[in-house]
Design brief:
- The complex is a heterodimer.
- Helix content of chain A is 39%, strand content 15%.
- By secondary structure, chain A is an alpha/beta fold.
- Chain A has a 4-stranded parallel beta sheet with strand order 2-1-3-4, with helices on both faces.
- In chain A, β1, α1 and β2 form a beta-alpha-beta unit.
- In chain A, α1 packs across α4.
- Chain A is globular.
- Chain B is an alpha/beta fold.
- Chain B folds into 4 domains: 129 residues, Rossmann fold, CATH 3.40.50; 258 residues, FAD/NAD(P)-binding domain (3-Layer(bba) Sandwich), CATH 3.50.50; 163 residues, 3-Layer(bba) Sandwich (FAD/NAD(P)-binding domain), CATH 3.50.50.60; 61 residues, Alpha-Beta Plaits (2-Layer Sandwich), CATH 3.30.70.20.
- Chain B is 28% helix and 22% strand.
- Chain B has 18 helices and 32 strands.
- A 5-stranded parallel beta sheet of chain B has the order 8-7-6-16-27, with helices on one face. In chain B, strands 18-25-19-20-21 form a 5-stranded parallel beta sheet. A 4-stranded parallel beta sheet of chain B has the order 2-1-3-4, with helices on both faces.
- In chain B, α3 packs across α4, α7 packs parallel to α8 and α11 crosses α12.
- Chain B is elongated.
- Classes of the chains: A alpha/beta, B alpha/beta.
- At the A-B interface, α1, β2, α2 and α3 of A face α5, α6, α17 and α18 of B.
- The structure holds flavin-adenine dinucleotide and iron/sulfur cluster (2 copies).
- The site of one iron/sulfur cluster has 12 residues of chain B, from α10.
């Protein structure tokens, strides 16, 4: 579905992995403002970004995502102490892994938003989508080869 | 799998653009879906009632609700599930309002997206399993650590609510820092008068066990079930039989200078912590006692009129207490001005701290209310240096709120006590946080012999020796100024006490960047730590005055009462992690990543296991386990992968 249709602008398909207390709450608040969010953004609610493991991100790319946006609380604002730091560390390792799988590391971003930053959330999403537009659709002839855990 | 789907029209009301017909058609055609209901307003009481009835009638195996944000609605709908006799964790929610209907201008795109989300929820629900909340018995007893205003207030409130309390105080007497103050601003009561009702109330309460000379030595467990180890030092005087006559004190030949901050003069090996200390029982300092130095002195025992009260064989003990909650109320210390050598404390005879002056002014203090200390004669020129060590990188990088009030209070007391003296406040910022602080400042400004000089750079502050006066104080305002003074009073900020780090380690409570115990949130939850079951009270959490400390203590007690309720079992959310012992390779990784110390490692079997009461379900260990041995209930790998695949359609 994410393949560009002839003549139509490329609409990237983006998976948003959002922690419930800050990022998801922020997305809710953005909804409250009736702002416009790209239809290609598909969000999933997690308790904490600490839950994000590489296989979730790889699965997303395997399933048609052009980009993955992980959003958690601000440093120090994590509702589970410092787990968002771990998530950041893990994402850095993940970026190297993506490179090896033939996915540009720019396709996976980690950002911090608080529940009150809906404007910033919208900017971050738009900015990421714009970057993905420039990158174009993820061409993964290797897509089938992306590790798919049990 | 018979799944009932409830689709709430709330998204359409706020100007949403989803084609309900197409969603209904597509979703109803899914093999898992047995029924599709479009509800007017799921969150309204009518909506809830309708949904409950449909659940009772249809008895579906799984339930999907597409509505507004699950953050608000899911807990409510889980109760509806339980009400209808279904397991609450067989519900999957998806948010088609805030995340789709309200933010997607294109109707086609919005409808496609809504279909993907609802289908993802249907598929996810199929993978969900019934979960049962865990129930843990709560121990209603509460430990209060620290016997200052905050701890005493907490203990009294808890006992008043019928709770058994164990109060652990490291010193030989109750009352904390406040009990030894000459006057307590704003009421200007004497410290021990002010504290008396709290101290005697605690000592008289049959529900409060007071452990003095005692410190926390170990802690394990969690909300509802803490096991504390408490190390008690020997007092050598049996409190139960001591009549407080003090006959043992004057006979003691072991006289030495008093090393305690704020206590000037000498002390004997046996004596009261300070005059008027409660409980009114002396304490013997084994290190100072001649018996520890090879002599066989028994003078105090002989002088004591109650045989068997002074016992040289009293020994240290390790006690164990089980409680359901802990209140930390260990207070703060005055910042050690010895770390600011330029200010001359300890080297120049004319330099004292606010606490020392407070003690000198106290009629019951070590100088019986006389301004003596290290001074040669009653001082005539007095300077009070505000913020000694405050708002200064490398020392205390904050304003401690109470010390300007303390300085103003002491300045007025000194001016009134010494009719010849002039008082100069050498201040930096003036912190006057409440109406009473402002009134105090007005009074000080109106006083003929009190004046104010401002300094800007703390680095330029210096006290040096001088021939014609005890000290010369230099400070930098617009220009460098200096003055000769007989007494320089340093007013340092409150700073975390020396025992804070150890307590933080024992109870796993966090500390802020200054070393105070970190509250649950920066603006709410100041009476609770981030560890469930551990409350915070008073100046160990942040600098504050007596009134606020007492209030804070009562707040912490309220939190403890709400958390550890007698007879109540604590329902623990079942969305927690669990380790599959067969897959676990014993690598230890999870133990290190869990922020809640919820994972224990059994050395014998070399396997990790999660304590579900401590686990908050953050999922970090699930993601970290290299052997994929940990499952996060309700956020399993399979559930998340299926959700990811489906929403991306
Ligand atoms: C010189 C000076 C003047 C002041 N003047 C005023 C004033 O005029 N007005 C005003 O409102 N406030 C004043 N204050 C502040 C006031 O003293 C505090 O607000 C108040 O005492 C704080 O109460 P607390 O219970 O939090 O701590 P504290 O009073 O410090 O009590 C803490 C208790 O915990 C005990 N403890 C510490 N560590 C442990 C441990 N590990 N285990 C067991 N027990 C432990 C301590 O021995 C102490 O008894 C003044 C403070 C000072 C230093
Ligand atoms: S036994 Fe120790 S405390 Fe008692 S009088 Fe002798 S020296 Fe003092
Ligand atoms: S899910 Fe989080 S809180 Fe629970 S055991 Fe794992 S790391 Fe600890």
């Amino acid at each position: 579905m994410s393949a560009p249709v002839e003549g139509r602008a490329f609409e990237p398909r983006v998976l948003g992995l959002l922690c419930t207390h800050c990022a998801y709450a922020c997305a809710d608040n953005a909804g409250g403002t009736r702002a416009s969010v790209p239809a290609g953004l598909r969000t999933i609610r997690l308790m904490c970004t600490g839950r994000v493991e590489p296989s979730l991100v790889l699965e997303a790319f395997g399933a048609g995502a052009d980009g993955v946006l992980i959003m958690g609380c601000h440093p120090g604002g994590c509702h589970y102490k410092e787990q968002n730091y771990r998530a950041v560390q893990r994402q850095r390792i993940l970026l190297r892994l993506l490179d090896q799988c033939g996915v540009e590391p720019e396709r996976c971003r980690f950002d911090h938003v608080s529940a009150a930053e809906s404007t910033r959330y919208l900017e971050l999403v738009d900015d990421f989508v714009a970057a993905l537009r420039r990158l174009g659709p993820l061409r993964l002839e290797r897509r089938t080869r992306v590790h798919r855990p049990h | 799998m018979r799944t009932a789907v409830f689709y709430c029209k709330c998204g359409e009301m706020g100007g949403g653009r989803i084609d309900l017909e197409r969603v209904a058609r597509t979703i109803a055609a899914l093999p898992e879906v047995a029924s599709f209901h479009a509800l007017e307003l799921t969150c309204s009481s009518a909506g809830v009632k309708a949904m409950r009835q449909l659940l009772v009638d249809e008895r579906p195996e799984r339930v999907v609700v597409a509505a507004s944000s699950p953050r608000e609605l899911e807990p409510k709908l889980r109760r509806v599930m339980a009400d209808a006799g279904l397991n609450p964790y067989l519900l999957a929610m998806t948010n088609v309002r805030e995340q789709i209907a309200w933010v997607t201008p294109d109707r086609e795109a919005a409808t496609d997206k809504a279909i993907a989300y609802v289908r993802a929820a249907v598929r996810r629900a199929a993978l969900q399993v019934p979960l049962l909340p865990l129930a843990v018995e709560t121990d209603p007893r509460v430990a209060v650590i620290g016997g200052g205003p905050a701890g005493l207030a907490a203990a009294l409130a808890l006992a008043g609510a019928g709770r058994d309390v164990v109060l652990v105080e490291q010193g030989p007497a109750l009352g904390g820092a406040a009990v030894r103050l000459d006057q307590v601003h704003p009421g200007m009561e004497c410290g021990s008068c002010l504290m008396d009702p709290l101290v005697t109330g605690v000592l008289d309460s049959p529900r409060i066990e007071v452990l003095l000379l005692a410190r926390l030595a170990g802690a394990k467990g969690y909300l509802g079930n803490f096991e504390l180890g408490i190390a008690r030092r020997p007092r050598f005087v049996v409190a139960e039989s001591c009549i407080g006559c003090g006959d043992c004190v004057p006979v003691c030949p072991a006289v030495a200078p008093d090393p305690r901050l704020g206590e000037l003069g000498t002390r004997r090996a046996i004596g009261f912590a300070f005059p008027g200390a409660m409980p009114n029982v002396p304490v013997l300092d084994a290190q100072a006692c001649l018996r520890s130095h090879g002599e066989s002195c028994t003078l105090c025992q002989v002088a004591c009129p109650v045989p068997g009260t002074i016992r040289y064989d009293d020994a240290a003990a390790l006690l164990e207490r089980k409680v359901g909650a802990v209140v930390l109320a260990v207070g703060a210390s005055l910042y050690d001005v010895g770390r600011l050598p330029a200010l001359g404390w300890g080297t120049l005879s004319g330099v004292h701290t606010s606490l020392e002056v407070e003690r000198m002014l106290s009629p019951d203090g070590p100088t019986a209310g006389q301004l003596r200390g290290r001074l040669a004669a009653p001082p005539r020129r007095i300077a009070l240096v505000h913020c000694a060590g405050a708002m200064q990188a490398g020392h205390c990088d904050y304003c401690s709120v109470v010390c300007c009030g303390v300085a103003l209070k002491l300045g007025l007391a000194l001016a009134e006590r010494l009719p010849e003296a002039t008082v100069t406040h050498v201040h930096r910022e003036l912190c006057l946080p409440g109406p009473e602080d402002w009134a105090l400042y007005e009074r000080a400004r109106a006083h003929a012999r009190v004046s104010f000089r401002r300094y800007e750079r703390p680095e330029a502050l210096a006290v040096s020796a001088r021939d014609d006066a005890a000290a010369e104080l230099t400070w930098g305002g617009h220009a460098t100024e200096r003055g000769a003074f007989d007494l320089v009073v340093l007013c340092p900020p409150l700073a975390p006490g020396p025992g804070h780090a150890e307590l933080a380690r024992l109870l796993d409570v966090g500390r802020d960047r200054h070393g105070f115990f970190a509250p649950l949130g920066p603006s709410t939850g100041h009476a609770t730590s981030r560890i469930r079951g551990v409350m915070l009270a008073g100046t160990c959490q942040a600098p504050m005055g007596v009134a606020a400390s007492v209030t804070h203590g009562a707040a912490a007690a309220g939190q403890a009462l709400a958390m550890a309720v007698p007879g109540r079992t604590i329902e623990v959310d079942p969305c927690v992690a669990s380790v599959d012992a067969v897959r676990c390779s014993g690598c230890h990784v999870c133990v290190g990543v869990c922020p809640y110390k919820a994972i224990a490692f059994d050395q014998a079997t070399a396997r990790a296991s999660v304590n579900p009461v401590l686990c908050t379900g953050c999922g970090t260990c699930v993601a970290a386990c290299p052997a994929a041995a940990i499952t996060g209930a309700h956020f399993t790998h399979a559930q998340l992968l299926s959700e990811i695949r489906e929403v991306l359609q």
